[in-house]
């Protein structure tokens, strides 16, 4: 079974937790075993969002995960990037893992979105989904589905 | 079976969708049949947040729901209030339904929180959970659990 690591930084956007659940569900269907590495606030939101644990099976603190991370430990890295800190985490995890990587970059402010996208572009060769979004998760969802279709 | 109506306005807060799923799950355990009335953006977030429909069974557009709403149509009204518009919806639904009602008021700005709480307090006799929260859903969750315990 392939292994995917989802990376969640601080959940400023109302779309982050729902999209993390959606991505977990989609990747499970593609036979990935999923681990979600996240900050404490993002982790609490996941717990509340899936109280019966249907979607989120395996969670780990993002810093603990980083401290033991090894090259090729996961087959896929999917980073949620809506803040500078999350972009830095993605770049760091990308260079340690050296595996197939996707950055899902979403922000409501177009200038911030551009900055975040530039940071990821200049520092990694991962696939990038970059989309102006806040409330409405559909623009992120549609582009995420497209990039997943390319994975297969 | 008792019937509960959950009311979701525009999802500014990252805690809203996760708490709506949590509340649905908790109220189901208390034998409520749940309908979620929401704005289009809130509805899309719910879909993405529960792609397999484990938690959210019955959704309706908030305005369609309002147009056919009748006194005592639901046994419980639970309103998520983190914007002025959501407070107005709660007050309106409260007066039409005339049923047991809870307002879950959460905001990161203490002044806005106070204003929202005042609006609900002055215009309804519903139970109120009012809490400063944004990222971290736990303060809302803990108080919601307490008020649910009082329901039984």
From TrEMBL, chains A, B:
Q: Which InterPro entries would you find in this protein's record?
A: MTH777-like_sf, UCP006600
Q: Name one Pfam family in it.
A: DUF1890
Indicate what this protein is called per its UniProt record.
DUF1890 domain-containing protein
**Which organism's genome codes for this protein?**
Methanobrevibacter cuticularis
